[in-house]
Amino acid sequence: MVTIAAAAASRRMLSVLLLLCLSGVAWAKTHRFEWTAAWGSQDVDGVGVRPVITCNGQWPWPDIRVDKGDQVEVYLTNGMNDSTTSLHFHGLFQRDSGQMDGPPMVTNCPLVPGDTILYNFTVADQVGTYWYHSHTAGQYEDGMRGLFIINDGENNKDYPYEYDEEVVLSIGDWYTETVTDLSKAFLNLYNPTGAEPIPRNLILNNTRNLTWDVKPDTTYLLRICNIGGFVSQYFWIEDHDMTVVQIDGVYTQPNTTNMLYVTVAQRYSVLIHTKNDTNQNFAIMQKFDETMLDVIPKELELNSTSFMMYNDSLPKPEQDVVDELDFLDDFYLTPLHKEEALGEPDHRITLDVVMDNLMDGKNYAFFNNITYTAPKVPTLMTVLSAGDQADDVTIYGSNTNTFVLKKDEIVELVLNNQDTGNHPFHLHGHVFQALIRDVEYDDALGLKPVSYDPDDHAPFPEYPMIRDTIYLRPQSNLVIRFKADNPGVWFFHCHIEWHLLQGLAIVLVEDPASIQASSSQAITANHLSVCANSSTLIKGNAAGNTDNFLDLTGEHVQLDSIPTGFTKKGIIAMTFSCFAGTLGLVTIAIYGLLDVKSLDNVAFNIMSGGAPTVSPDDKNTSAQELDEEFEAKQIDEMLEKSEAQKSKLLGKFKNIF
User: Fold this and answer.
1) Residue 446, pLDDT score
2) Of 153, 172, 310, which is closest to residue 229 (Cα–Cα)?
3) Number of neighbouring beta carbons within 10 Å of residue 152
4) Beta bridge partners of 432
5) Rounded CA gap, 216 and 56, in Å?
6) What is the C-alpha separation between 258 and 192, in angstroms, rounded?
7) SS3 of 140, please?
8) Are 429 and 93 spatial neighbours (Cβ–Cβ below 8 Å)?
């Protein structure tokens, strides 16, 4: 028999539970964004207007700020008429929502012009500084990018470190031309070494020479994110220390430094306390890591200065010149919540990084001699349509560099860098422990390139640094580990956009059985519509075959390798021979055939994809009517471009000849 008191107590309990549920609903908000990506124009660095990808006709793209536990809905419409597009939310785990991760032909179909895709996910278990960007054809270097900040509780009230105010600083590099135009010269027979395009400037919060007005005796939380596409940067503030408290969304033990080294895609949160007096202003400094540049143009400013202003009535500071680049090595950062190094791996994946040429003479990037080549079916959709064969790595194709991971196994990625460049690598869907980052090869110090030996290596840190983006030193090695506890299809790739265009990526298919069993992993109707509108297959193996998943006939594959014995010197000799032959033809044309209409454009398009400067009145002028000054201008312009290309090649190969 239920007493009145018991019934009343039961009603009170139900009321409490209802209030708790309602409070939970009120706390978790839904943020809806409707964006159209389209071409516009902008003078970003004060040097000149260039095309940029705008958001709803505006640039830069908006920053997103949400609280932990919130729901996010992003409706992206492709307003460009010349390209597909996509979005990736960098650093977000997308737990149980892997199709929202974004990379075309990995988890999604390409978004064609005029179509709209919905990215719908919850930020359930992450806080910190993240960002979003296009994952299509280097588009984020054309400005399609923004920050994504997740507060730790409402208004960041649960942040473990005290501060007074918060400031967001996005750093990046900026180019004169669009990625499409730059790629024509980059992925080209006449660039056999893969020398990356050189940025025009470094930018801070999407501009140059930023002014930041500060208050005295104030603790600021700075969220620093490198949203550039290529160059790592040194960052410091004159005569001010920075205390690192979070990296890539992972809280750290406080670590104080006066300089950071920030690769593309990395994020640092630091505390900085301003001075008590206001009798001086200070420089905010960014510096190119010039070792990443094959050529340093004479007009390139390696340092960029912005201004920390205590007093507007005083002059802006000059650039701060330092004697040495003594920066914090992030490898030695310790997570705030210490986690011991993961145990022996269940699955070790060893990846040799190589940059080399294929039969078309272009330079590509390889993991284990495979350059990533997209399949005909997005890999996630191959998983969902493969049934019991989803565990067979064969079905994902010969050139996707795919590895299948079992549920909850400890995975070790070993990277041996056989390239002379620096590579920042990013893992989708996870953070990882950094166990080994070997010293950089330096012949002057007697150091030689060394591959990782699992039986003979330096001791692992007791509590390894954890993050989602880490750099691999030139001709060195790196070891990271993570637990396969997030079923999905995850990209792992170099975050230098030029290197991703060259194919430096692998795909991890994690726990395919759980992907198939989860209703939340089923492809949404909207995403299926995107696939239909792009004429992308949604079932089958990498070749689109559904009858026999082991039959890869018709799959996309890389070009053949250059025959053994055809050395790099041979490639260079061939390139210079082609270059010289083309130069000879152009010279003959300019001197002997100037009366042929449009010849100038033909000749210069052969050389560099550009056209000479010709006024409208000159286009129909015969050779006899051209005056000497105009003719000399044409010849000088051609020779100047030719010399620039020759110097670039010679600079790259000075250590080979």
Assistant:
1) 77
2) 172
3) 17
4) 467
5) 38
6) 39
7) helix
8) yes
**Of how many residues is the chain composed?**
657
Q: Using an 8 Å Cβ cutoff, are 243 and 273 in contact?
A: no
What whole-number distance in Å separates Cα of residue 487 and Cα of residue 492?
Answer: 15
pLDDT of residue 532: 99
Distance of CA 177 to CAs 197, 228, 289, 495, Å?
10, 15, 21, 20
Which alpha helices (DSSP H) does 289-425 contain, by range?
379-385
Stretch (H or E) spanning 53: strand 50-55
Cα 372 to Cα 387: distance, rounded to the nearest angstrom: 24
Q: Report, as ranges of residue numbers, the positions in the chain whose pLDDT lies below 70.
A: 1-27, 564-657
Instruction: Say if residues 66 and 39 touch (Cβ distance below 8 Å).
Output: no
C-alpha distances out from residue 344 to 27, 454, 496, 509, 587, Å: 41, 10, 30, 21, 64
Q: How far apart are CA 186 and CA 498, in angstroms?
A: 8
End-to-end CA separation in angstroms for the chain: 97
User: For residue 500, which amino acid is it?
Assistant: L
In angstroms, the CA 383 to CA 537 distance is 13
How many Cβ atoms from other residues are within 10 Å of residue 129's Cβ? 24
CATH topology of 27-153 equal to that of 161-335?
yes
DSSP assignment string, 633-650: HHHHHHHHHHHHHHHHHH
CA dihedral 539→541→545→547, nearest 10 degrees, is -90
Q: Angle formed by the axes of helices 628-652 and 568-592, to 10°? A: 180
Cα gap 90→228, rounded to integer Å: 13
Q: Name the helix (H) or strand (E) containing 509.
A: strand 505-510
Could you say which of 3.90.1230.10, 3.40.50.150, 2.60.40.420, 1.10.1520.10 is the CATH number of the domain covering 161-335? 2.60.40.420
Q: Which tens digits make up the pLDDT trace of 120-161?
A: 999 999 999 999 999 999 999 999 999 999 999 999 999 999
- Two tokens, residue 62: 């908006």
Sorted by where each begins, the domain ranges of the chain are 27-153, 161-335, 347-534
Which two three-digit tokens encode residue 110? 């390409």
Residue pair 239/318 in contact (Cβ under 8 Å)? The answer is no
Residue with tokens 């960098």: 90
pLDDT at 601: 42
Residues 6+ apart with CB under 8 A from 350: 368, 414, 416, 452
CA quadruple 114, 132, 421, 171: dihedral positive or negative?
Answer: positive
Nearest-angstrom CA–CA distance, 467 and 45: 31
CA distances in angstroms from 300 to 63, 288, 332, listed in the order given: 29, 10, 33
Q: Tell whether domain 347-534 is in CATH 2.60.40.420.
A: yes
**CATH T-level fold of 27-153:** Immunoglobulin-like (2.60.40)
- How many C-beta neighbours within 10 Å does residue 65 have? 15
Determine contact, residues 167/223, Cβ cutoff 8 Å.
yes
* Residue 513 CB partners (closer than 8 Å, separation 6+): 390, 391, 407
